[in-house]
Amino acid sequence: MSQLLRYVPRPRMAVAAAVVFGALAAGAVSGYVLLSPNRTWNCCPDYTVDNRAGGVPSILDADGGGTRVVNAITSSAAWNGSGSGRVIKAHKGSITGFALGDGKPMLNFTDPIAACTGSCLGATFTAYYSERSAGSGSWKIDDADIVTNAGGYNWTSQGEDPGGVGCSSEIYIEGVMVHEAGHAIGLAHTGVAGATMLPSVSYCNNSPATTEVDDENGVVALYGAAPCTNCDTHTNYIGASGVTQYQPCGTYYFGDTGSQNGYLRGPVGSDFDLYLWFWNGTAWQQVASSTTTSNNETINYVGTAGFYLWGVHGYSGTGTYHFYTSHP
To answer: For the chain, which residues score pLDDT lower than 70?
Structure first.
């Protein structure tokens, strides 16, 4: 399965949403549409954006659009400003060994699989997902690579042509890739005019690089409403009372001196608790906890520099939760 961005022979480009490879599935006019089954990343994915020399050949900025794409898909004007915290990261790097389904999300400025030809502009492969626990109905994204039909069209960027003053029958790489990144985090196509996930965009129009209310509502439906800004977002599932899961992403992190912030949003009707440990040099020492009877818990612990580890504990109830964290 893939999500395809296509060109049609008229003054607008059509973006195809795919539930089956190559199929065009228009979104509902009433609002955002999520991939089916609904699914999210466990941890904020960090996309490797193609750093090949020259980037996209037709883009004449400093690096063929590479830096502009990284900045666009991680911008607070796009998915990371949608109200769910930081849901996607990106950096330039080598895509040698590019392969679908290997759990290494990559954005390729070519199409080695020849899946995006003809009228296709870009494609996101969304078929790589799995159930967090059998029968849970909670689904996680395992991989979602993006490819580009770079040779089939004239591309530009805000670096080459800020504001579109000199643009003529060109396609902005930033808007296309922000749209594709929307598929990568779990969104399908909408029918709402002006939204990034609308399946059409005109030439020389970079407005899809900035998400709209409809797009943002879709992200919040998947990743929850974050009680913080500039925090990393994690999603997982606890299927039995007494289970503790470690965050971020099953491991510890290094935090500088200052406030270590954790926000847990558990499933309705559950009693999930939150703990924070600090490595004292010989063992993990619990330094903070939030154990109310609510499904929502918050810790803001001011500590010294060192290694920290969060624990989400299912005291009672089961279900999918969101965990948001930030630290200096």
So the answer is: 1-30
